[in-house]
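Two proteins, back to back. First:
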Amino acid sequence: MTFATSSPGASTAGQGTTPVSLLNKPSSPTNNFLRVSLEAISNMSLQPICQNCTTSTTPLWRRDEAGSVLCNACGLFLKLHSRPRPISLKTDVIKSRNRVKNSGQSAKKKVSTQIVS
C-alpha cells in the first residue's frame, strides 16, 4: 500500500516551490481517509505472528514459499517434512541448548616449542 504525500506535478527542481503535503491541507474526504489510514497503520502491532500456529514469540522468523511469516519451529518442520506443522506440537516454552563454553582458547592445542642446543 502506498500513500501519496505530494501532488504528482509538484517539483522542486529549481522552481523554489515546495510540494504540498496532503496531510497539511484543510480537511477533505481524501485527507480524512489518509489520516485515519495512517493512524490505523501506526496503531497496528509490529510484532509478527506465525501464520501456522499464531505464536508471536520465537528466536527466529522464517518465510514459506508463498512469503507467509512462520515461526522457527513451523518453518523448520515445513522444510523437513514438506507439510505444515501440526498444532498439537505447539508449546509455550522455548527450550535452549546446553552449549559447552570455551575458556577463550581455540580448538587447537597449544604446542610448546623448546629450543634444543
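And the second protein:
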Amino acid sequence: MPRPGPRPYVFEKKSWHSDRHQPIRGSLVQEIFRVVNEIHSSATKKNKEWQEKLPVVVLKAEQIMYSKANSEAEYMDLKTLWDRTNDAINTIIRRNESTETGKVLQPCIEAALNLGCTARRTSRNQRIVAQGVTLTGT
C-alpha cells in the first residue's frame, strides 16, 4: 500500500528537454542498471520477483531524474548518479527521511509495490525488451 503523503510525482518538461535526448536517456538507464547490479547481493539478484520489477523501477527513476534535472550536464553527471537515483526512488515511494524511522522495506522493492508491479512469469524475450532502452515521451 502506498505511503500517505503528497501526490505522486508528475513529469515536468523543462526547456532543455528534447527528443534528441533519447539515446542519452538510454545510456543513463544502462548506467542505473549497472549501479543497481553492483550494490545488490547475489541473493537479491537471483530473486525472480526482483528481476521482474527492476526494469519498471529503473525506468520510472530515470524519468524522474530527467524531469528534475535543470540541464543536460546535471542529468548526465555520473558523480551524482547514486544520490539522484536514491532521490528518485524516494520520490516514487514518497519517503521523507527526516520524519520516518524504524524498519521499512528495501526502497527499490517498495518502489515496485508503489508502482503497482505484480510478479508474473515472462518470457526471456519480454525480459530483454523490458531491460532495453525504449523510452516513451516521459
